[in-house]
Please model this.
Amino acid sequence: MAVAKQRPTIDLGAGAAALEQDLPRVLNVLGATSIEELGWRRHNRLTLLVPMSGTFQDKTTDYLLRLGFQAYREWPPSARFVNPETLDYRGAEDARFVPQLTSDACRTHIQYPDPHNNGTMVQLICCSATFEFYDVLHEVDSKFLWRNTDTFLLTINAIRKAFVSSYQGPFA
Model:
């Protein structure tokens, strides 16, 4: 189980194995037989790309969520919105690829201070179902802590729920 105010520990082998184990379970829950059926794709053994979209003021914008499993299942997957061409996020130049989500349970920041690298700013999906939330040593109520019985579907669903309840268009 994740621990508040403690940095996640990386375990690439365990993360890859847990993803392989959880992927069929998640597909089954979603009634799908493949990630392609959902529009998802694997970038490598530790990375899953999940398209998302939001509608604000009658305009729909597509986004690409990149999930990383470098510390999974003891910790939630890494999550950030990326440029669909580079599959990366490079700060201000890629801000338009990040949705403004403003719910209490899931909020996006395009420039959040990285407490481990003085002066550096990072993208943060401020949600207790993301790796970065713990990596920046965010405060969290114990009832919202990631449990090692959770799957990455919790992360996807938390972000999708924020799109429905509090999407404010892309950062510009």
